[in-house]
Amino acid sequence: MKRTLSGNSRVVVARDQVSSDLGGETAILNFKAGKYYGLNAVGSCIWSLIQEPRTVEEIRDVLVSEYEVEPMRCERDLIALLQRMAEDGIVEVRDGTST
C-alpha cells in the first residue's frame, strides 16, 4: 500500500540494502530490486540522518540549518525524495497516512 508522507512521518533506511560513502556522495544497492542508486551531497546528508528513524520535520530542520533553503521548499523536496525512496524500497515509512 502506498503511503503519503507528511511532516510527522517517520522514515528509516530499509534492511534489504547496503550503502557506501563515496567521498561525499552515497551509492546504495537495493538487494530485492537489484538496483543501484546514487545520492549527491544533500541526499547523502539525508541518508546519514535516516540511519535511525527520524521524522520528516526533524530532517528538514537539519537541512534548513545547514543549507540556504526555505523551510517549505525544503520539506516539499524532501518529501518527494523520500516518497521515491519508499516506493523503490530503500527506506521504510514507520508512520504517516496511508492512501
Structure characterization notes:
- This protein has 99 residues and is an alpha+beta fold.
- It has a domain of 66 residues.
- Helix content is 37%, strand content 28%.
- The protein contains three helices and eight strands, in the order E-E-E-E-E-H-E-H-H-E-E.
- Strands 6-2-7 form a three-stranded antiparallel β-sheet. A three-stranded antiparallel β-sheet has the order 3-4-5. The protein has a two-stranded antiparallel sheet with strand order 1-8.
- Helix 2 crosses helix 3.
- It is globular and about 35 Å long.
From the structure above, extract its key features.
99 residues, 3-stranded antiparallel β-sheet, 3 helices, alpha+beta
